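Case study 2.
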Amino acid sequence: MTPSAHILAAASLSLLALPHALAQTCLDTAFLTPNATGSLTLAGFQPPEIGLNSTYTLSTALVAQSFPGNNSGVILQTFYLTSAPFIDLSAPSLPLTGCVLALEEAGSPKSTDVDGEGQGTCAGVLSTDCQNALVDQVNNASLVNSGMGPSTMAMCAEYLATMPAECSGDTFSVVAVAAPLGNAPSLSISDCPGYPSIGNGSATQASLIETESAPYTPASNTATYDTWVKQATPLIITAWLKNGTGPEAWSDTRLVCSTPDDVVKGSRVVSGSGRTVGRWGGWGVVVLGMVGWGAFL
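Prediction:
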């Protein structure tokens, strides 16, 4: 493993298996009243001699959304960062750029609470060999990209187009990618007064990446929600220097896994999900629209 590649832990998601560009909006109202949340901290990206020292808090929010017109539902999940001290991670002037990749597991989902490891680890979710191979493959690709300017969706989609052989026993695949680091928001987002940087994101604005389940029927069916509240989704965040070439080339990669383990009071509490707060208070779905930026694969 390259010295700057680290296996850390943090974040949960699941997505569609078909290409789907996320809508864009000033306020992602679907997440105003989430059913479950979760967060953890990790070291920020720190290229040498640039002075970007910061700590990131990576958070997630999950919501069940219903569509009464056809009696169906879908689960939405968003992931976002805050940085302390604050760094404008969206700024075109940021010297680094990068990609975010979300992985989904086929079959029965695994929780970060497997083996009592708790929030902030991929132990029990991915094998150690697979974790190491994922970080190595992504980080080495980012090192090659160092000096090639800002990230693009096409770059991000190539990282794990072929999964490492060490992951053959792990039934995970990439289901969403995003290229938000060091890239100014699109024109429609820029038109939003006071729209925050992804270095100060929230459940409703400036997300890193957003995901959604396949639709289910009837809308009252809780099976998908019960699965998503318990499942851990690996999230890979990788960065490189826009202008760092040759001996100045640099890259760094984080592999993080977590579940939305804080169930909001009034939402359905699922047996076996991580930490829960509040009590069973009904299904708790919202009838709102979905937003974000990135792509489902």
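The CA atoms of residues 272 and 280 lie 14 Å apart.
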